[in-house]
Write a structure and sequence with these properties.
Blueprint lengths: L1 H20 L19 E8 L6 E9 L2 E9 L5 E8 L10 E9 L2 E6 L3 H4 L4 E6 L8 E7 L15
Antiparallel strand pairs: 1-2, 1-8, 2-3, 3-6, 4-5, 4-7, 7-8
Amino acid sequence: MGRWLFLGAVLLLPALALAACGGGNDDGAETAPAGASSSDEVMIELAEENSSGESGTATLTAMGGRTQVVLELTNPTTDSQPAHIHEGSCGPSLNPEPLHGLLNVMQGRSETVVNRPLEELTAGGLAINVHQSDDDLETYVACGNLSGEASAPATTDGDGY
């Protein structure tokens, strides 16, 4: 019995020593998990369009070669609103043909994983656009230009899909 107790103590001591040493840095702050640095996340403002009263944010988070896109709208006017990533920028230069579909914004929120890296989506020349409803795709309610830095997008009163 004593031999098993000794063997257990010998195996347990290194594990306790490792647990006591890990988890933080010299200033007491916890280290970020792998792949969670601030450069791995970009927040974009979604500005109101067409006097919709809707605005919000798009948070893009790197997931290796893919990107998680979370849309959060304030004052959604319908329960389900289509959203897409388009070529161009908010306003008349927005290409009405979607480049990447996003899950519909349901009661103000949508979460989609796009099979493109964050760096590609935020390199410029793209925008996230939210439409009024499945029945009214031509009315834009919120839009945000995708760039490497969070910024206020240009707003417009333009229509179109």
